[in-house]
């Protein structure tokens, strides 16, 4: 028989290990942690990164247009020659020939090839801009999902607090009705408000569950637990504080503008390629051939022999007339070049408009946070005043219930407004094209590392 104390002592290390595993699994993750996880899991970002690798490799292929080409060809033949003529004696010969040729061609002057090579180098810039855009998009998607979970968690917490407060008010109304100091109306009003809060709690739980599942799917983690913000939240002022300065930054850093600038450069090079159709081309050519005759050759006194032939030359090709194809190709590329220039200008205008919209949105959000902070303090004072008035009989139950609803609704709006400002600052940087992973660090520094994860509903 195993002694109970020994059994507990044997189980103690296992229980401690399980407890440590549970605490580790319940550890909250910061915004930077979840972004790092999403980088290695998100399929959209992985697709963009692999596309960048493919585009970089494809760009190097254009270099081959400027480098020499070398080829080796080997042939072997067996010939049977049967001569029948009244003037000479009949003869029959069988011989073989082996040929091995190494050929080389080096472009010396090919304007179209040079333009294609420059276009290939532009593809690397294009791929880099596309990858930058994918990185910024991932930062925003992770941050959006992160703050969505925090906002949903806050909403649920506020609804639970409101339910507790309404339950206390309901119990108080019932007690007052029993002793005859209030009417049945107070109890029914409190009961109706309590039932409404229960419905709101169910909706808040479902919203948190859905937002949490979306975050899990994005970062590739089960039960991801975002670290909440410290209280109070410090919202920094925008720097620079002028929208025009943000617009100026975008002209050199926005990936969308970069892509269309590259498209314009490529279109200009395409015009150069089309114009090269009028120009001559010059190549350096060379070859070395080894010929081996087997079993004799009637033209070489029927003896085995070998011949080595080497040649070096220049190949000049001068276009004269191509049925007006070159002229029309030039017209086409010039029109496409003008189109690319117009597209670039349209994108610059759209980016500038988006930056100004995001900039003023952040400023408005910061003002809303300040207003809601004042409203929260006022709502708290109003609730306390109504509770006191209800106790002394100058306020009725519905006044207290309305004050409670207003207070918790203000708290939820204030928390959401803070998250919107933080996310709005990131979106402003994305609109200007300057958003980087390092921009998550200021937000990360405001997270409460000592906080425990919220309620898990999954």
Features:
458 residues; alpha+beta; Outer membrane efflux proteins (OEP); 4-stranded antiparallel β-sheet; 10 helices; 65% helix
Walkthrough of the structure:
- There is one protein chain.
- The protein is α+β, with helices and mostly antiparallel strands and 458 residues long.
- It has one domain: Up-down Bundle (Outer membrane efflux proteins (OEP)).
- It is 65% helix and 13% strand.
- The chain is built from ten helices and four strands.
- The chain has helices at residues 4-25, 31-41, 43-61, 111-179, 184-219, 243-253, 255-275, 325-392, 397-432, 441-444; strands spanning 69-83, 91-109, 281-294, 305-317.
- The protein has a four-stranded antiparallel beta sheet with strand order 1-2-3-4, with no helix packed on it.
- A hairpin with a 7-residue loop joins strand 1 and strand 2 (91-109).
CATH architecture: Up-down Bundle
Could you tell me the mean pLDDT?
Answer: 86
Distance between the termini: 42 Å
Q: What order do the SSEs take from the amino end to the carboxyl end, as H and E?
A: HHHEEHHHHEEHHH
The CATH superfamily is known as Outer membrane efflux proteins (OEP)
- Percent of residues in β-strands: 5-15%
Computed Rg: 40 Å
Reported for the largest beta sheet, the result is: 4 strands, antiparallel
Brief digest:
By secondary structure, this protein is an alpha+beta fold. Strand 1 and strand 2 form a beta hairpin. Helix 3 runs antiparallel to helix 4, helix 7 packs antiparallel against helix 8 and helix 8 packs antiparallel against helix 9.
């Amino acid at each position: 028989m195993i002694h109970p104390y020994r059994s507990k002592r044997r189980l103690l290390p296992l229980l401690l290990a399980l407890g440590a595993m549970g605490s580790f699994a319940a550890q909250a993750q910061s915004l930077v942690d979840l972004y790092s996880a999403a980088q290695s899991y998100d399929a959209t970002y992985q697709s963009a990164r692999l596309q960048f690798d493919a585009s970089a490799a494809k760009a190097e292929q254009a270099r081959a247009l400027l480098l020499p080409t070398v080829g080796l060809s080997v042939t072997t033949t067996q010939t049977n020659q049967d001569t029948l003529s009244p003037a000479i004696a009949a003869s029959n010969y069988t011989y073989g020939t082996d040929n091995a040729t190494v050929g080389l061609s080096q472009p010396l002057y090919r304007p179209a090839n040079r333009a294609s090579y420059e276009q290939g180098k532009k593809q690397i810039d294009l791929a880099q801009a596309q990858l930058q855009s994918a990185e910024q998009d991932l930062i925003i998607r992770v941050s959006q999902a992160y703050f969505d979970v925090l906002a949903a968690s806050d909403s649920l917490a506020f609804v639970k607090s409101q339910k507790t407060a309404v339950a206390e008010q309901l119990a108080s109304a019932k007690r007052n009705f029993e002793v005859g100091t209030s009417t049945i109306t107070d109890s029914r009003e409190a009961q109706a408000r309590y039932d409404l809060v229960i419905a709101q709690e169910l909706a808040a739980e479902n919203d948190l569950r859905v937002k949490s599942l979306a975050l899990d799917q994005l970062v590739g983690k089960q039960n991801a637990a975002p670290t909440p913000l410290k209280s109070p939240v410090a919202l920094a002022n925008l720097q620079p504080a002028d929208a025009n300065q943000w617009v100026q930054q975008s002209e050199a850093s926005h990936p969308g503008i970069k892509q269309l600038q590259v498209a314009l450069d490529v279109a200009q090079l395409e015009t150069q390629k089309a114009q090269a159709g009028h120009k001559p081309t010059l190549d350096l050519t060379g070859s070395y051939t080894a010929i081996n005759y087997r079993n004799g050759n009637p033209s070489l006194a029927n003896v085995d022999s070998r011949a080595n032939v080497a040649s070096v030359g220049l190949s000049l090709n001068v276009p004269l007339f191509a049925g007006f194809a070159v002229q029309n190709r030039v017209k086409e590329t010039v029109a496409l070049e003008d189109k690319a220039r117009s597209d670039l200008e349209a994108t610059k205008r759209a980016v500038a408009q988006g930056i100004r919209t995001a900039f003023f949105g952040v400023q408005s959000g910061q003002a809303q946070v300040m207003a809601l902070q004042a409203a929260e303090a006022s709502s708290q004072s109003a609730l306390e005043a109504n509770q006191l008035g209800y106790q002394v009989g100058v306020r009725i139950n519905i006044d207290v219930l309305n004050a409670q609803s207003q207070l918790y609704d203000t708290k939820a709006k204030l928390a959401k407004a803070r998250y919107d400002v933080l996310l709005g600052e990131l979106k402003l940087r994305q609109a200007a094209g300057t958003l980087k992973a390092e921009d998550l660090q200021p937000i990360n520094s405001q997270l409460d590392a000592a906080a425990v994860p919220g309620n898990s509903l999954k």
